[in-house]
Amino acid sequence: MLILERRFAVCSEAFAHANRGPRAAIETVDNMMKLKPANLATSLAIFAAVLAGLVPWSGARAQSYPSKPIQLVIPFPPGRATDIVGRLVGKKLGEHLGQPVVIENKAGAGTVVGAAFVAKAPADGYTLLISSGSTFTVNPALNPKLPYDPVKSFEPIGLAALPLILIANREVPVNNLMQLVAAVRGTPDKYVYGSFGSGTTGHFAGELMWNAIGIKLLQVPYKGSAPAMSDLIGGQIPFTVDTVAASLPQLKAGKIKAIAVTGATRTTQLPDVPTVAESGFPGFSADSWLAVVAPRGLPADAKAKLQKALAETMADAEIRDKLIANGLQPAYEVRCRRGGANRRRAAAHARRGATREHPGGMRNEYGNR
């Protein structure tokens, strides 16, 4: 019994002092072996506390990143382009990191809910955000009192392209952009367009496009891409601006038709669909993009591992093929360099009269590339 009592006392004391380092723990064991046995009840209590995790142990601290599952927050509802990318990339990213990446949809307030959640999370690499330019450029321009700072709150991990497209209901007598312009000018009060939310990149790209073209369509904001697409197919709205990723399944099924892509180049998935610039408005480009970020203060070693794993994921042939098949452009940059320019551009448009309800008054300046 005395031997058992001594062993428990030694173990508990060693664990209790292990936060001073392995050498301190060893010295504690050596010293305790020279002492008389402590009370068995006290030893058991301390040992139990150690096992319950109430006493810190340096072994846990010494674990290399990552040592547990990683949460990837998507600030959009399921089914959106960001959600598609997050789920495709998240699984492979987890394989490269050696820990599962768990998807968490936190939609609301034009990505503000999910972004604020991640901004306030511990900067330990176990909570990440994947979001579009809405979070980092449009929202700050439209709402100066956000619960996060687009630069100071986040640590950039990587960036990828996300093309947008203008699509139409199949029964609308419009098959290209010039026909759309003629139809709207002929009956200016007849046409509206949908977006997947006020303040989103689809909304902003639409307003940039109408101002560049010289026409005005009232925006009908939806809570996500799915309800907007449903009303487009059903004929409740004639047009919408959405991501190629979200639009591609319905285009392939013949339920809607494509008018023009808003980026500088045509997409791989829809090579026959012209750009807005090719449709008679040279110089126009209003791309979107996705960024993966972590809370500011991320340790350098964790950031390096995340960037390496994300780069390897985006270079994976299987992932690239799946992204392309889902209407996404598998371009990737390790560093996020676009935030400042886009924020200034978005703020300039906001000062010219953009509001969350009806952002009119923007001039012929093309941004959000």
Description:
It is a single chain. The longest helix is centred in the N-terminal third of the chain and has 17 residues, at 81-97. Helix content is 43%, strand content 16%. The chain is of the alpha/beta class and 369 residues long. The chain folds into 3 domains: 2-61; 70-162 and 288-346, 3-Layer(aba) Sandwich (D-Maltodextrin-Binding Protein, domain 2); 164-287, 3-Layer(aba) Sandwich (D-Maltodextrin-Binding Protein, domain 2), CATH 3.40.190.10. α9 links the parallel β6 and β7 (218-221). The protein has 14 helices and 11 strands.
Give the key terms.
369 residues, alpha/beta, D-Maltodextrin-Binding Protein, domain 2, 3 domains, six-stranded mixed β-sheet, five-stranded mixed β-sheet, 43% helix, globular, disordered N terminus, disordered C terminus
